[in-house]
Amino acid sequence: MERVAVLGAGSWGTTFAKVLADAGTDVVLWARRPEVADAIDGSRVNADYLPGVVLPENLSATSDAGKALAGAQAVVLAVPSQTLRGNLTAWRDRLPADATLVSLAKGVELGTLKRMSEVIREVASVPEDRVAVVSGPNLAKEIAAGQPTATVIACTDHDRAVDLQHACSTPYFRPYTNVDVVGCELGGACKNVIALACGMAAGLGFGDNTVASIITRGLAETARLGEELGADPLTFAGLAGLGDLVATCASPLSRNRTFGERLGRGDTLAQAQEAAHGQVAEGVKSCSSIRELAERLGVDMPITEGVHRVCHEGLDPRVLTAALLGRERKAERE
Ligand SMILES: NC(=O)c1ccc[n+]([C@@H]2O[C@H](COP(=O)([O-])OP(=O)(O)OC[C@H]3O[C@@H](n4cnc5c(N)ncnc54)[C@H](O)[C@@H]3O)[C@@H](O)[C@H]2O)c1
Ligand SMILES: O=P(O)(O)OC[C@H](O)CO
Fold first, then answer.
1. What are the GO cellular component annotations (predicted)?
2. Deepest in the core among 17, 275, 295, 309, taking most CB within 10 A?
3. Ligand 2, closest atom to CA 137?
4. Among 139, 154, 179, which residue terminates a domain?
5. What is the pTM of this model?
6. 75 carries a ligand binding annotation
7. How many angstroms separate the Cα of 177 from the Cα of each of 152, 161, 190, 312, 325?
8. Is 327 helix (H, G, I), strand (E, B) or coil?
9. For the chain, how big is the Rg over CA atoms in Å?
10. Could you give the CA distance from residue 186 to residue 194 in angstroms, rounded to a whole number?
11. Phi and psi of 31, rounded to 5°?
C-alpha cells in the first residue's frame, strides 16, 4: 500500500496519519477547515488537536476531499460516529474503486442502531470484505508521542487486513489482524459508555475497587451483547475488548472517562460538554443507541442503561450507584 487518504484531522485522524507516514506510507490528510490543512502543510503541526507534535514530511494536508481521495489505496474515516453517514455521503462518488474503507470511529449510530462498518457498507454500497476497522487501546496523545501500543485491524478479508497492517506497522505501533469485525466494533463502542460510568464513580470519590468492578461487569454486559450479535467471545478478552476498556476507563487522557468524572462531581451535561472543547466523547450518544440495541435483543446491560439515564434523563449518579448495587442478587456467570 503506497498511498492512503485519512479523512478527519482531529486527534485520532491526525495521529493515525502520522503512524501511517512513520511506517513509510504516503498520506494525505483531509481537514474540514482550510486553515488547519494550511497550518499542517506550513508548520507540520496540528496545533488544535496535537500541539507540539511534528508531523512527517510524507504527510500532506488538504481541505479538498477529492484531492485526498485521488489514487488512495485505503480510505481511513476518522470522523465522529454520528456524522460518519453524512460525511461519507458527501465523499462516496469520489471513493477510488477497490480501495479498502477503514473505520476509526467507535460508536453505534443513533436511530439505525448500526455499527460503523454497517453504515459504511450501506452508504458506499460496498461488500463487507472491503471494510476494515481499527480498534484497541489507542489514546491518541500517547501514540503521537511515540509511546508503544498495540491495536487490532479487523476485516473479514484477511489479506486486506494484512495489507493495512503492513501500511501502519512502526516500532511503536503494533497492529494485529482479526476477522471478527462485529466483536472489535462492539468492544470499541461499548467501552466508551463503561468509561463514562468509571469516570462518574471516580468523580463521586470512589476508588479502585469500584472502578475495577465497573470495568469487569462492563465487559460482561458487552460480551452478552456481542454474543447475541454473533461476535467471537474471545475478542472481548483481546486488545479491542479488555485492552481498550482498561486504557479508556483508567486514563485521565480519555475524553469519555473525563466527561463521566465531571458528571460525577456534579456538572450538568452542558457543562461537561463545554469542558470537552468540541472534542467528541462518543459514549454520551452511544449509551442511548447501545441501550436501544440491547433492549431490542433482550440483552441485560444495566451499566449502559444507567449511563443513559444519567446523561439523558437527569438521573443523579449517586442514585445510579445505589440502583446498580441494589439489583437482584445473582450468579456471576448468569
Ligand atoms: N482520540 C483518540 O484517542 C481516539 C482513539 C481511537 C479512536 N477514536 C475514535 O475516532 C473517532 C474520531 O475521534 P477523534 O479523537 O479524532 O475526534 P475529534 O473530536 O478529535 O475530531 C473529529 C474530527 O472530525 C471532523 N469532522 C468532520 N465532520 C464533522 C462533523 N460533521 N461534525 C463534527 N466533526 C466533524 C472534525 O473537524 C475533527 O477533525 C471517534 O469515533 C473516536 O471514538 C479516538
Ligand atoms: O478519549 P476517548 O475516551 O474517546 O478514548 C480514546 C480511545 O478510544 C482509546 O482507545
1. cytosol
2. 17
3. 10
4. 179
5. 0.98
6. no
7. 6, 6, 20, 36, 38
8. coil
9. 19
10. 12
11. -115, 140
Is 331 within the bounds of a domain? no
CB 77 within 8 A of CB 102: yes
Residues 164 and 223 in one domain: no
ipTM score for this prediction: 0.98
Within 8 A by CB and 6+ apart from 319, the residues are none
Angle (CA) 129-176-110 rounded to 5° is 55
Confidence of residue 198 (pLDDT cuts 50, 70, 90): very high
Under the banding of pLDDT at 50, 70 and 90, the label for residue 299 is very high
- CATH number of the domain that 276 lies in? 1.10.1040.10
Separation between Cα atoms, residue 170 and residue 42, nearest integer Å: 25
Question: Does some domain include residue 12?
Answer: yes
Q: Whose CA is nearest to atom 31 of ligand 1?
A: 83
Residues 192 and 298 in one domain: yes
Tell me, yes or no, if 191 is annotated catalytic. Answer: yes
Q: Is the CB of 174 under 6 A from ligand 1?
A: no
Q: Does one domain contain both 202 and 229?
A: yes
| Cα–ligand 1 centroid distance for 272 (angstroms) | 17
Show the beta-strand stretches assigned E in 78-210. 100-103, 131-135, 149-155, 173-178
85 and 234 both lie in a single domain: no
Could you say which of 139, 155, 179 is where a domain stops?
A: 179
Give residue-wise pLDDT tens across range 144-182: 999 999 999 999 999 999 999 999 999 999 999 999 999
Q: Which of 67, 114, 141, 191 is catalytic?
A: 191
